[in-house]
Prior knowledge:
By secondary structure, the protein is α+β, with helices and mostly antiparallel strands. Helix content is 40%, strand content 19%. The protein has 39 helices and 42 strands.
Amino acid sequence: MGCCPRKDLLEACLNLEIFGYKSQGCRKALCVAGYILSCGALLLLFYWKPEWDVWANCIPCSLEEADVVLLRTADEFRIYSRKNVTWISVSALIKSRSDYPAVVGEGSIFNEAIMKPSLQVKSIQVQRIRYVWNTSVKQFQKVGALEDHHTCSAIHAKFGSGLTCDEQNVRRLICGPNTIDVPVIPIWKLLIKEVLNPFYVFQLFSVCLWFAEDYMEYAAAIIIMSLLSIALTVYDLRQQSVKLHRLVESHNNTMVTVCRNKEGFHELESHLLVPGDMLVLKAGRALLPCDAILISGQCIVNESMLTGESMPVTKTHLPQADNVKPWRMHCAEDYKKHVLFCGTEVIQTKADDRGEVKAVVLRTGFNTAKGDLVRSILYPKPMNFKLYRDALRFLMFLIAFAAIGMIYAVCVFALSGVREVVKKALDVITIAVPPALPAALTTGIIYTQRRLKKKGIFCISPQRINMCGQLNLICFDKTGTLTEDGLDLWGLLPSERNCFQDIQSFRADHSLPWSPAFRAMVVCHSLIVLDGKIQGDPLDMKMFEATDWVKLCFVVIPGPKASSAPVEGIIILYQFPFSSALQRMSVIAQKIGGEQEVFTKGAPETVAKLCRAETVPLNFESKLLLYTAQGFRVIGLACKPLQAERQFADLTREEVESDLTFLGLLIMENQLKKETKPVLEELSAARIRSVMVTGDNVQTAITVAKNSGMISPTSTVILVEANKIPGSFSASVTWKLLEENKTKDYGSLVTGSGQYHFAMSGKSYQTVVQHFSHLLPKLLLSGTVFARMSPGQKSSLVEEFQKLDTEEECAFQALKMAHAGISLSDQEASVASPFTSQTPSIACVPELIREGRAALVTSFCMFKYMALYSTIQYLGVLLLYWQLNSFGNYQFLFQDLAITTVIGVTMSFTDAYPKLVPYRPPSQLISPPLLLSVILNILFSLSVQIWGFVVVQEQPWYSKTNIHSACGENLSAEHKEEHLIAGEARVSKQSYENTTVWLLSTINCLIVALVFSKGKPFRQPVYTNYVFILVLTGQLGVCLFLVFADIDDLYSKLDVSICTRTEAVIENRALWLLLKKTFGYYSKSHYRRLQRVLEQDSAWPPLNETFFSDSVAISVDENMGGHSNPTFDSNENTL
């Protein structure tokens, strides 16, 4: 292309390569001439292949000079798209050069994008996101979001007072409106787009060819089916467009309050917001129209739309840290605690000592979290699955196969002097290459999705269903997934003067005594009061309920059953929310009329490090190990007094959470769900590996893994600890047997005869990734427990598992990074993961795997059937071409509609097999077993058709010209002339060979459908698909009816030659004798019995022997007791 690719220029998540091109007039003129001369065929080709359009019309150039850019995905699909460069003029908004710095802002992307002196901005739009040309770094950069390089203090200083009117206007012009606009696509656009699909273009070509060959009825039927298919598809797309439009419509029509620099507060419509605007959040519920950074006050937010979790989330303001780090790097993984996301609902706001609750607009439009969700629906990523790649390769093979048939057809018809050679040759392509072949891969998915929906499992990414059939590794969270959501309080182990006291149990008839640890339980939580009910984290709910106190907004007071307390109540002044990275949360609280205190709750080992050493008991580690080894969830508690004169807004988390006093351990019992152990046993029996990834303590996680059966009782657990060496850039890694395993023989592990599992913490995992990457695959191979993992580390772990082996497929609850993430949620669908289960247990996992395997096998069966059906028809037509013949109009119609279409619809009805077998279905179409199956069936079909073709010619009644010769009838001269017209291109379809080959190929299609309807071990046996069996039986019955119907008009329409001789079956002596011999049937008459006895008597007749009678004779009447004929007797006497 003459231009080196620029990779990842637009966005890391898009992963696009970009090429610059410049339009050229002479090339455009040549292309226009090509469009006219090709009657639009070249234009249609360029519509399908935009890269060819760009290469033909443009010449390569640098991106700076380009007026057209070509984008290419950097994955293996390498999909191209064309974008035109547009220019935005801001000269009308910048009145003079002296106003330029104030309006644009020094160091911003807007300053770098505006070209001088023209005051224009060069831009492109990719997937609804606008990118502008940065003149200094010479690349396109995204606008519509606040620059990442701003520090915390810079955000407060630059945007804390709001933007001026001129700054806002310039940013709005360059960034575009703050709208997530998904217009309802007009029907005519959907119709044109659908009609121009290669499938329908191929159908149009085929129909024109069939009309030219006088296949009128067949062509008309295909047109009707295609129109119906187009109408249904357009209707479905229109409904989706309307639904998506209504989903985002409310986003664009809200009123907000913004703070303008030196102009005060203004009410405006949300679509006018720009990055950097100061947003004022008022009391009451409100939907966020953009992503914003909270810079003052606190908010309680419902983020269920994004995460699938209905639990309210607390947001705190961005600290005014004075450092050089960008604000995201300073906040690390906790930056989301300061960000309000678009589409989420603000439930409550709480102002601090600086007055209003304010937030700086971070992202607008499609750059927001909600916009990203909508874009993922509008532009789904292509699935990297071998099945679809193999389908396209197989389609190419069929095209090559059809080319051989075309050459054969040309040779046969050209040598015979037939003029319609081209039409006959092109007809071979329409037969050998079924255009619906790739669509056959989706049939299993459609029915499986319906079955999953009935079982309470919803899917927003149907293409991932087939991938579920290949899963061999499942990563589970612990709390709420393997164990119950609710925790039972087991006891409180208080600490005083660096010594643990007697454990205090929780009893219904006894309240805990007043103590600092009790105060921590009362206030150190993130619970809120919403509509008169307390809501929040299940752990916090259980802990607070155990105190018998009552929460009233931001105040907690003793309840009627609470133990006596020396205070009227406690006010919760400020909260530092729980952080997965920090593994703790803190609150600042004040007794009514008393002093302020800080209370901290979190992972015991983390809390202990924040406490003064003299307050931590000496036996802290042994006590912690004692309870975690029993599977208890242990929470550490700590506190310290706070100086009252400090302002909360000026306090940093590091200041607040330091020099604490250790208060004790809160011990909670987390029971396994009843479904957990059976499901894990089922997965283990199916050789599907289970891994636990949790934020809990490593010892607790190991115990839960053992209790659930994830780690067998006979297995050894090895704890992997990796640490950075202080004062250096190196690190160390240590493998240690757990205490209970130390009695085992370590040598058995070394020799590989023992089964072992690795367990490690998130900190150790991070160190291994950074310093021991060569060991990581070995650790992952046997790693079973990953504890104290942050969300970022969980995503990293899933990616590493996927890299471990190209065949490795991974599922993980509530993670979009996995091949098949599953969210356990009450909602019908969650954007947090491709699958959402309304069943709050892991029982959905084997169900999803079963259905995924069934869908995958169904896709294979349908694909093979479609390929074999077209091949059978293709072989039959080529065989008839030898006699300048072919199938008739209604013969094609019967096979395509009455047989294949009905089978294609009903074959996928077979349900999944209830048992998971210890191996997966194949994932490749181009694999020896599957290819062998197809090839053998092709050879069988070819042999049967050739056998029928040859045998019918050897029959004594066979005649090439007389199609009624089998019935003993002679063809009249008129019929002969009509049957074969010398020199004419049209040849008769009706012949004995045609009838034989057509009937054999039709029945062969039924046999192939039955053979390829694979049942066990991934689907139920085929006989359980009653509709499919009924259809096959009915189709076979129709075929037999055609053989014996003896309806001349029907035979004439179908172009078949059948002489129905019922007596050949009903009165066939040879057949009757054969059946009698086969089943051992003998006549019961006395004559036949005597005959059989004599045949078996070797002494009969007795030759050369004389028999003598007995001495007593028996008297016999004259007439011997027989029948007498009086007339005959009388006449005889007369004579």
